[in-house]
Amino acid sequence: MFELSTAEWEAVRLSLKVGLWSTLLSLPPGFFLAYVLARCQFPLKSLLNGLVYLPLVLPPVVTGLLLLMAFGTRGPAGRFLEDVFGVTIAFRWTGAALAAAVMGLPLMVRAMRLSIEAVDTRLELAARTLGAGWWRAFFTITLPLSLPGIIAGGILSFAKSFGEFGATITFVSNIPGETQTLPIAIYSFLQSPDGEAPAVRLAILSVVVSMIAIVGSEWMERRVVNRVRAA
Amino acid sequence: MSFDIDVTLRRGDFELAVAFQAAPGLTALFGPSGAGKTSVLNMIAGVLKPARGRIAADGQVLFDSAARINLRPEHRRVGYIFQDARLFPHMSVEANLLYGYKLAANAGRYAAPDQVIALLGIAHLLPRQPASLSGGEQQRVAIGRALLSSPRLLLMDEPLASLDDARKQEILPYIERLRDELKIPILYVTHARAEVDRLAAAVIKIEQGRVVAA
């Protein structure tokens, strides 16, 4: 029963690829947003905050539709990427990664923001009086002390990306080998008369991957916390 | 080395206007809580900007509103010892001590790790993590960390206030040694008469944002 067919492997591999890329791509902007939301005061901050968290509460199909309007072949952002970089996002696995990144961003930003807020700014001031410039204080104090939240945010984003369904199928459709990620493959199998066995196999696999992600993130977080706040 | 300050700062309806000088040795800034003593230290360290005035240490201007000079904290070479030690929790005692030492330019660097570690009696703590130290030990490491950045001025903001009596007695001799062996001015903020009597060569008395006796 646990022999996976080529099509099933394809879906798993694609989901892993989409998850990894979307996580890597969203780490820099995610951390930047988390830092700005944690530390800076500026007008329209609540608007930015709302935009970042919007995909968490919006129906995923709406997020997918908005992405399609912006990044589709006729959308302004999609046409820009096509004309300037020759990159097509619509109906490609890159689009699936983009959709997954957008859906995972709120979880990532939230975890990072909490851990940045937990760093005592008075430690950064102490570093400044010892001769460290802003950037050095950031890299030697702020960043290492907020590392647990950064890792947790990355893993949460990966887990979310690995299993994203609604926005992905709306934005890049259901193309085997290109955009048919694991959850979309499960959905497709369930549409066919004898697809129940493969659907269940993939479902079990997704439970296993999710568990590994959760246990792994907790393990890594604990290790980092022990190192960072060593007692 | 000497130190010179003449600044004003306004916050709400509280106005701080202080002017005094300090020579090498320990000068106490003495007065009740809320008199503005810590604000004075923060302005000297560069983490609080005065409305007007001038601050100079060892011939170098740190702040001058007329000349539009406002050095960043990292360029002032002012050692700051806080009431809470503020050791970096993710670094060993040794790494904490060397943090500012490594950043001090060779030209102006006068403090040597071995000497400072011996002076403060912290050699046995080097491999430990800050969280495993007692309050008194943490404060001694914090003093060493500030000294090793080779400051031209040392600020101490009630360094004993959060310690119990036994710990205070443990640290006081070290501060006396610092006072006698360092050739830079030390500004020591306190509201405890006993510390002033024991440590200070000069006293600046501050009340409600004004120097009332020097």
Short structural summary:
The complex is a heterodimer of chains A (231) and B (214). Chain A is mainly α.
Verbal overview:
The complex is a heterodimer of chains A (231) and B (214). Chain A is mainly α and 231 residues long. Chain A has one domain (6-228): MetI-like fold (Orthogonal Bundle). Chain A has helices at 6-39, 45-57, 60-71, 76-85, 93-117, 121-129, 134-145, 147-162, 166-172, 182-191, 196-228. The radius of gyration of chain A is 20 Å and the shape is globular. The model of chain A has no long low-confidence stretch (mean pLDDT 89). By secondary structure, chain B is α/β, with parallel strands linked by helices. Chain B has a domain at 24-44 and 72-199: P-loop containing nucleotide triphosphate hydrolases (Rossmann fold). Chain B has a 6-stranded mixed β-sheet, sandwiched between helices. In chain B, a hairpin with a 2-residue loop joins strand 10 and strand 11 (210-213). The mean pLDDT of chain B is 91. Classes of the chains: A mainly alpha (231), B alpha/beta (214). At the A-B interface, helix 6 and helix 7 of A face strand 7 and helix 2 of B.
